[in-house]
């Protein structure tokens, strides 16, 4: 990420703006996103898969500016709630390029999707087939995909593994539920089934599980053709592509993915004498993650026994990922150079529990002190979107940097915002 590139003089910067300057101007904690980096990463997927649709998974990070960048780069958008849909519509994102996901879509989610005219709704369970069909006006047809479970275990943590049986998403291929659902969808004249969808999991660091999934999905397509006499024009393989949180972490390269997945798909379809469906991929983290940096200010430094704790002004309310999935981050001191050698310290948040750890056992200069600014790279995905106001700490602002200029995208949540929803006596 551009975060790694120091400005002349050595100060770490994002999009040409020194991080320390951003901390002073916008306060801390704050989330910085590099527009150029987001656009470049969106383009990398488009370039790797020119014959495919690239749908950015909005759950990773969504603001109106982000939606506009994604639209301008020619991507599609994956959303999973009426909230994400409304924001996309408000930002002017073309509805026909939107895919609605969800294992439990609310009446509001579905009504909003149909009102806006989203391109695809992904059916996740048999009971929503008739429900969705009943909302489609007479004479119209809603295009849908069906989410199937290919029986592939992949993903960095059990909480984000969705490709195997025994978790809540999709309809298993192995148990016959997927085929049964396809038959039912085909019986609904107001639904047009465009193809299969699967999403294996998240932070997947190898292409192998995707290749296995392609093999199993083509086997299912073959059976659907043989038994039900249908073929489909689309195949959505979901997202889940790993990024580096620390040096040396394995990542997925879009070109390597494209090469192996399209080769496997062509080969298997040729063997089965099936038309090759148009691919969709749904990267979220890969596009947003490396383009974001979290900034904090140190509030306290404490050595107890053998451990040094560096407490900052944010924590698990703006980044619950270490506590939820055991994710390890790197942390850098910005705004001043330190001649003092690094020591191992643990960066903790300000929240009222011992599990509020941002980065365990990271090297930081031995003279770290209150007032210092710390930066956490790879904070662009699933931080802002998963932030809470635990302990009534307001959520941080989001700042975009482009060509050496910074602008506020989302303002800091104030005490008035927090109090305003509390309307009881
Ligand atoms: N498509 C579907 C249907 C998904 O459910 C997801 C993510 C994606 C695409 C994008 O996955 P990505 O490319 O971003 O890995 N909160 C967790 C990640 C949850 C992912 C949920 N689904 C985390 O912070 O690691």
TrEMBL record:
Pfam families: Orn_Arg_deC_N. The active site is at 352 (proton donor). GO terms for molecular function: diaminopimelate decarboxylase activity; pyridoxal phosphate binding. Substrate binds at residues 285, 321, 325, 353, 382. The modification N6-(pyridoxal phosphate)lysine is found at residue 59. Its EC number is 4.1.1.20. It catalyses: meso-2,6-diaminopimelate + H(+) = L-lysine + CO2. Residues 36-288 form the Orn/DAP/Arg decarboxylase 2 N-terminal domain. PROSITE patterns: ODR_DC_2_1. Pathway: Amino-acid biosynthesis; L-lysine biosynthesis via DAP pathway; L-lysine from DL-2,6-diaminopimelate: step 1/1. Keywords: Amino-acid biosynthesis, Decarboxylase, Lyase, Lysine biosynthesis, Pyridoxal phosphate. Its cofactor is pyridoxal 5'-phosphate. One of its GO terms (biological process) is lysine biosynthetic process via diaminopimelate. Pyridoxal 5'-phosphate binds at residues 240, 282-285, 382. Transmembrane segments: none annotated. Specifically catalyzes the decarboxylation of meso-diaminopimelate (meso-DAP) to L-lysine. Homodimer. This is Diaminopimelate decarboxylase. It comes from Streptomyces morookaense.
């Amino acid at each position: 990420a551009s975060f790694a590139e120091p400005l002349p003089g050595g100060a770490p910067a994002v999009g040409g703006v020194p991080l320390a300057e951003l901390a002073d101007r916008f306060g801390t904690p704050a989330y910085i996103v590099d527009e150029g980096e987001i656009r470049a990463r969106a383009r990398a997927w488009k370039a790797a898969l020119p014959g495919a649709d690239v749908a950015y998974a909005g759950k990773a990070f969504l603001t109106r500016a982000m939606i506009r960048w994604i639209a301008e780069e020619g991507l599609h958008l994956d959303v999973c709630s009426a909230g994400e849909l409304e924001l996309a519509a408000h930002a002017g994102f073309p509805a026909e390029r939107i895919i609605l996901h969800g294992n439990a879509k609310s009446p509001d989610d579905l009504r909003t999707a149909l009102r806006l005219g989203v391109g695809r709704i992904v059916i996740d369970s048999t009971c929503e087939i008739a429900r969705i069909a009943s909302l489609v006006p007479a004479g119209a047809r809603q295009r849908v995909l069906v989410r199937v479970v290919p029986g592939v275990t992949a993903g960095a943590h059990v909480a984000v593994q969705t490709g195997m049986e025994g978790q809540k998403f999709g309809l298993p291929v192995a148990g016959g539920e997927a085929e049964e659902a396809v038959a039912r969808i085909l019986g609904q004249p107001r639904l047009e089934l465009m193809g299969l969808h699967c999403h294996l999991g998240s932070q997947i660091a190898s292409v192998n599980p995707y290749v296995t999934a392609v093999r199993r999905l083509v086997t299912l397509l073959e059976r659907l053709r043989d038994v039900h006499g249908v073929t489909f024009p689309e195949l959505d393989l979901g997202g889940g592509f790993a990024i580096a949180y620390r040096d040396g972490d394995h990542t997925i390269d879009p070109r390597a993915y494209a090469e192996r997945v399209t080769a496997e798909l062509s080969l298997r379809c040729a063997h089965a004498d099936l038309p090759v469906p148009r691919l969709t991929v749904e990267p979220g983290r890969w596009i947003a993650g490396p383009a974001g940096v979290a900034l904090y200010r140190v509030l306290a430094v404490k050595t107890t026994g053998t451990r040094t704790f560096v407490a900052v002004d944010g924590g698990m309310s703006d980044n619950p990922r270490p506590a939820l999935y055991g994710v390890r981050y790197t942390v850098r001191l910005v705004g001043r150079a330190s001649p003092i050698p690094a020591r191992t310290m643990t960066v903790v948040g300000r929240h009222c529990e011992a599990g509020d750890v941002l980065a365990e056992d990271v090297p930081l200069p031995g003279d770290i002190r209150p007032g210092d600014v710390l930066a956490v790279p790879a904070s662009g995905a699933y931080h802002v979107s998963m932030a809470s106001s635990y302990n009534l700490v307001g959520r941080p602002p989001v700042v975009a940097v482009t060509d050496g200029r910074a602008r506020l995208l989302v303002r800091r949540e104030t005490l008035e915002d927090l109090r305003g929803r509390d309307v009881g006596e």
